[in-house]
Amino acid sequence: MVDTQLRMAMIGVSGRGGLWRHWHQPQGRSVVVAGADVNPDRLAAFRQEQGGDAFITTDYRELLTRPDIDAIAVTSPDFCHEEHAVAALEAGKHVFCEKPMAITIAGCDRILEAWRAHGHRLMVGFNMRYMNIFRTMKEIVESGAIGEIKAVWVRHFVGRGSDFYYHDWHATRQNATSLLLQKGSHDIDMIHWITGRYTTRTAAFGSLDFFGGDKPNDLTCPVCDLRDTCTEYMEGPRVQCAFRQEVDVEDNQVMIMELEGGIKASYLQCHFTPDYHRNYTFIGTEGRMENSEPDMKVWVKTRLSNSYRDLADRTYDVKPARGGHGGADPVICGDFVDMCLDGKQPIATPQAGRMSVAAGVQAAYSLRHGGMPMDVPALPEDLLRYRS
Ligand SMILES: NC(=O)c1ccc[n+]([C@@H]2O[C@H](COP(=O)([O-])OP(=O)(O)OC[C@H]3O[C@@H](n4cnc5c(N)ncnc54)[C@H](O)[C@@H]3O)[C@@H](O)[C@H]2O)c1
User: Does residue 16 share a domain with residue 89?
Assistant: First the structure.
């Protein structure tokens, strides 16, 4: 047993709450001692797998007063993050908050306010910052190989659109605001992280072109008459009809951004593609860089400089890593523990969490109001110096 151990609790124990398995190391530096969830069956399954001695509750507030809990992971749905993260910070717990940080800019700012007021540690679940392919791209930019970044183009093929976004709570504005800040919060953050610049202005177009429709809101796949022929039939766990009336988040959207320093970026997200991957291109004054997730490669092409300085074009073969999300999940969980126990600066900062939501919220507003350009409110002044 190690000298210092972080005692953790989960709010939301299944789905993304499965991260608890990385943190539960009874002989290591972190252990999961409790869980809260609105679903008693999921709580029971969690406790059984955890070993049987976890405290479980359907009321997350019962976690807040327990002195045997140092840190809380908020892995509940997006619309709960603000309430859960603020309560946990105010109760004096360290917090791991899944992305998106909240579904409004004001919600993010409330979380930041509680973080500043109570002095505990806060990290956002931006696991893409820990993926080898995007770490490679960041290192290339920082090496100066492609010069000063001027343009970023991101194409996001969300082939799992119906699996993950249209069969449950994700599909309504009330729960998620927009898939630009739900799914897209990762990509907006990648654009911010790799360039080192935040979005200052944005505009977008988008619509619901494939999902949604006139099916009843309580229709589920297992009882549907069309289950044998429907292309979106799901066996579970997410089984609400993807063509139900309440669905109102856009499935086909185009967002443009101006970043600090005048960088121009675009983010294209479509939820009914057959394939699932992200294609990023960064263009700088001396070259360009592009990735392929299916091929696990990054290409760098440099411009002719007509001088002895010319660098070769290069292909990077990205190493696969073990663990969820391209090996990122175990590493981000370890980083959270290092942050809480050792004071290590996190890679996935709260400031970044707020700025990706801010850009996504403003883009969603733009696309619902004729595509008008929107300013993106900057971070509160005192947080700017910790930007990342
Ligand atoms: N970083 C990533 O790669 C990544 C991947 C998946 C999901 N996520 C994020 O994780 C969060 C959860 O997503 P999910 O797909 O696991 O959702 P989910 O619907 O599976 O819910 C997760 C858990 O929270 C519980 N829950 C629901 N409402 C609750 C409440 N009010 N209080 C307590 N528990 C509640 C559910 O019963 C479930 O056990 C989302 O914010 C999502 O964006 C992040």
Answer: yes
Output the average pLDDT for the chain: 95
Q: What is the pLDDT of residues 233-286, one digit of tens each?
A: 999 899 999 999 999 999 999 999 999 999 999 999 999 999 999 999 999 999
Q: Is 322 exposed, middle or buried (0-12, 13-18, 19+ CB in 10 A)?
A: exposed
DSSP 206-224: EE--SS--SB-TT-BGGG-
User: Which atom in ligand 1 lies closest to the alpha carbon of residue 12?
Assistant: 24
Phi and psi at 75, nearest 5°, equal -120, 30
80 Cα–ligand 1 center, Å? 9
**Shared domain check, 321 and 172:** yes
Give how far Cα 224 sits from Cα of 150, 170, 216, 318, 319, Å.
Answer: 50, 21, 11, 43, 43
Same domain, 174 and 142: yes
The pLDDT, as a whole number, for residue 206 is 98
Atom 33 in ligand 1: residue holding the nearest Cα:
37
Q: Which residues touch 98 (CB under 8 Å, ≥6 apart)? A: 16, 73, 74, 75, 76, 81, 124, 125
pLDDT for residue 311: 77
